[in-house]
Design goal:
It is built from three helices and no strands.
Length: 108
């Protein structure tokens, strides 16, 4: 029974940073996507779907990396270094997701 509880706690420990990362990504890309009043006619009809999917996925992967580094910190890795590396990976991943999501539309 104890092993089952530990597995459930680990699942929650991974899901929470992923959801937070996805929410941050969705919030940031929503500012750009919903701020466009008149899109360029050359863009596809549903141009905003790709960034609204790709950027939150990139944020979720950044959150997953944070959970991995948090796990490594509990096993003896320097906690401060783990948080700094996680932050850098999250920001770079979110930037790359934004570029990939907006490529061909707002990002030339």
């Amino acid at each position: 029974m104890k092993n089952l509880r530990t597995q459930q706690e680990q699942g929650i420990a991974v899901a929470k940073p992923m959801l937070i990362g996805a929410a941050i990504g969705l919030t940031l890309i929503s500012i750009f996507v919903f701020g466009v009043d008149q899109p360029n006619p050359e863009w596809p009809k549903y141009w905003m779907v790709r960034p609204l999917i790709v950027v939150p996925l990139a944020g979720a992967v950044g959150g997953l990396f944070y959970a991995f580094m948090d796990y490594q910190a509990t096993r003896g890795f320097n906690r401060t270094l783990a948080v700094l590396i996680s932050l850098v990976v999250f920001v770079v991943g979110l930037w790359m997701g934004t570029v990939l999501g907006l490529a061909g539309t707002m990002w030339h």
